[in-house]
Design brief:
Strand content: over 45%
Order of helices and strands: EHHEEEEEEEEEEEEEEEEEEEE
Oligomer: single chain
Largest sheet: 10 strands, antiparallel
Helix content: under 10%
Structural class: mainly beta
């Protein structure tokens, strides 16, 4: 029985650069992991090989790292076509799901950091991947899987969003009060609260709060706004001094959930850190 692949610590980098730094995917094993290095790095492990009917192959790694921006997962890969030993970098896309102790704890799109980081532990990551070569010749789809042990501590929360209701009903109007907290003294007290319903249902979001606007569509006529969404620019947040936004949600016969996201940034010298936090989802039933 082949030995279980070992996670390989590498510095977080673009997928093409990562390929050059991870010989254990197709060569001899690397050095033993250094827990101190793992705490500040992205881990990668061989996750599987996709094969085509014509002999095409794509060797896929799964890489994961946790931090303030969330649980980040990518799937760098190399492709090979029959009759040549040349390996091409692949473009990869798809979705991933992370499980810890048998329970699903996060999911998202490849590549991305779409989910909150649950903290240190061993994660089994399963991904539905599409790998395409450049130049053309390989276009494969399949499921890959790898186990990775992350040591990065779960970051202390800096912001959070609360809402005073959890349910909506069709054919009614409901006022929701969102409260945005800044729990850390880090940052400048600015944040952006985004709210969005399901456009196809005809849901409408409205507010008298001057800090909020309905976003303008990118390709529509000038002045066309998305009435099922709101974008609120908040300033002056401080620990113990939250901001509140009241939103009127109007539903027709069809149901719609309303999801929320909070964006924030934390200046660090001339660098910018931060991310997007998932806020509460108000469901309809």
């Amino acid at each position: 029985m082949p030995s279980r692949p070992r996670s390989v610590p590498i510095l977080a980098c673009a997928a093409l650069v990562c390929l050059a730094l991870v010989p254990p995917a197709w060569g001899r094993p690397g050095p033993a992991p250094d827990p101190a290095a793992e705490a500040a790095s992205t881990l990668c492990a061989p996750a599987g090989t996709l094969r085509g009917a014509g002999g095409q192959r794509a060797s896929v790694l799964l890489c994961a790292g946790g931090g303030p921006r969330g649980l980040s997962v990518s799937a760098p890969a190399t492709c090979r076509v029959p009759g040549t030993a040349v390996r091409y970098a692949c473009l990869t896309s798809g979705t991933w799901t992370a499980r810890r102790a048998g329970r699903t704890v996060a999911s998202g799109a490849l590549p991305g950091a779409d989910a909150a980081y649950p903290g240190p532990g061993t994660y089994t990551i399963t991904a539905e991947v599409r790998a395409r070569s450049a130049p053309e010749g390989v276009d494969l789809r399949g499921t890959v899987r790898a186990s990775l042990t992350l040591h990065t501590p779960r970051p202390a929360p800096t912001h959070r969003v609360e809402v005073d209701r959890t349910a909506l009903r069709p054919g009614t109007g409901t006022t929701l009060t969102y409260t945005v907290h800044q729990d850390s003294a880090a940052g400048d007290g600015s944040a952006r609260l985004g709210l969005i319903g399901e456009e196809r249902t005809g849901v409408r979001l409205a507010t008298d709060d001057a800090r909020c606007v309905s976003p303008v569509t990118g390709g529509g006529p000038a002045g066309t706004r998305l009435r099922h969404a709101l974008d609120c620019a908040l300033t002056g947040l401080r620990p113990g001094r939250p901001a509140t936004v009241r939103v009127r949600v109007t539903l027709g016969p069809a149901c719609s959930t309303v999801v929320s996201r909070l964006g924030y940034w934390l200046p660090r010298g001339q660098e910018v850190t931060g991310g997007m936090l998932p806020g509460p989802t108000v469901r309809c039933g």
